[in-house]
Amino acid sequence: RAARRQAPAQKLRDALQQLLGEKWSEELERDVPHAWQRHGDLVVLSEESFRAALWEEQGPALWETVALALGARRLAKRGRVLPGGMRSPSVTLLLGHDGWVEHVDNGIRYTFDVTKCMFSPGNITEKLRVASLPCSGEVLVDLYAGIGYFTLPYLVHAAAAFVHACEWNSHAVEALRRNLVLNGVQDRCRIHHGDSRQLELRDVADRVHLGTTPSPALWAEQGSPEGDGSDGEAQHPTEDSVKGTQGARIRPEWQRWAEATAAQIQQLLTELHGQPWRTSILHVEAVKSYAPHVHHLVLDLECRPM
Q1: pLDDT digits (tens, 9 = 90+) for 160-179
Q2: Which CATH number fits domain 120-210: 3.40.50.300, 2.60.40.3600, 3.30.830.10, 3.40.50.150?
Q3: Which end of the chain is more exposed for a tag (fewer CB within 10 A), N or C?
Q4: Distance (Å) of CA 229 to CA 232, 233, 252, 255, 291
Q5: Among candidates 182, 189, 134, 186, which has minimal Cα distance to 166?
């Protein structure tokens, strides 16, 4: 009974201590992870764990011991995201034959290879919000589809009529194909494999889902919460400037980012179509924080010709 009540982290330490016997030390104990990511029977360990040379000397017995202690059949270890536009993970499979896993979010099934594709549980709030959007009958273009993080909520829950899903990572495309079939929506989606900047789609979308990374200069101009001379937050702007926010509170620099982005897209649309366009900020959503003053924000923007 005591073993069943034992915390997983403590159970792991006890199993490793038994494996190493007299070789066990405080240094090795600090190398044992306290948390990990689980995908079914596969556990992904952090890159900071098991770095001492003595661990490598244990061979396969080490990973078999870890898997048994954590109730897993497969193990992998995460590294840093590889450089380049693909945002491919650096994940090494330690135990098992492949890295394919299945994850369920809000009734949607996602399958992917953890050694080839990234998956962020922290985006669940935004997936839920996307799933609730009124997209019935709409045609969408998802410019950075990945394995279908948002393509699938649009199709499964938001009732989009059709989605053009654009993705240039071949591993993500393979996962996306499987996920469309898993969720029975493959007939309402076309995958465009390649660079979205070369995509030849025009006048087809009611809604476009895209990602953008602000330039460092833009962030420098916006400043940080401490520089606002208050508690770092401000009441949400009036309905004229930001509609549909339902009284949410956003930071002043987030609002400035939204306004700058709206102005930039308005200018791009005007230049592209040769006539004036209007952009209206509908919603600003703070999804998560990566680090102090580094936030994942989402902007809903309505764009119409004037």
Answers
A1: 999 999 999 999 999 999 99
A2: 3.40.50.150
A3: N
A4: 7, 10, 11, 16, 21
A5: 189
